[in-house]
Amino acid sequence: MNYEDIKKLIDDMGNSKIDELSIEFPDGIKISMKKDKTQMIQAVPQEPVQYISVPDKKIEKAETVENKVEENYKIVKSPMVGTFYSKSSPTAEPYVKVGSEVKKGDILCIVEAMKLMNEIESEFDGKIVEVCVNDGDMVDYGKPLFKIK
Questions:
Q1: Whole-angstrom Cα distance, residue 6 to residue 11?
Q2: pLDDT in tens, 66-97
Q3: Distance CA 109, CA 117 (A)
Q4: Which of the four pLDDT bands, split at 50, 70 and 90, describes residue 59?
């Protein structure tokens, strides 16, 4: 079974109402998939608010210095379940790091799935502002890997 067949199988299951699937092929290949039943909830970022307590007075809103608006970020998400690697080998330099300028099609990282090393390419032009996972971490389908501005 090649990578494209596996990817199609994962996509088909993701789009179906099936929660769990196990397949055993005559050549010995076994595939088991199970959907995570937790729901993803996306919070809309608002202006950070800090409250202070003043003796004998009501709680007041304090002014905040930092205002991070994340709606301008483009998110590169994991296209599959696997292990995240920021570099091609343990002794190599990371493909990208915070501050790196990237173009659409540049390799950002590797996600290892079923002993296959899958190069993840940038879908956007921009600058890396955050690497959302650590080297060697397990990632799920759709997990944010990078924020690009």
A1: 9
A2: 444 446 889 999 999 999 999 988 899 999 99
A3: 10
A4: very low
Contact predicate 120/88, CB 8 Å: no
Those residues with Cβ within 8 angstroms of residue 1's Cβ, 6 or more apart along the chain or in another chain: 25, 29, 31
Go through the domains of the chain in sequence order and give each one's CATH number.
3-33 (no CATH), 68-148 (2.40.50.100)
Burial class from Cβ neighbours inside 10 Å (0-12, 13-18, 19+) for residue 128 reads buried
* DSSP string over the chain: --HHHHHHHHHHHHHSS--EEEEE-TTS-EEEEE---PPP-PPPP----EEE--TTS--EEEP-S----GGGPEEEE-SSSEEEESSSSTTSPPS--TT-EE-TT-EEEEEEETTEEEEEEPSS-EEEEEE-S-TT-EE-TT-EEEEE-
| C-alpha to C-alpha distance for 123 and 97, rounded to whole angstroms | 16
pLDDT of residue 68: 46
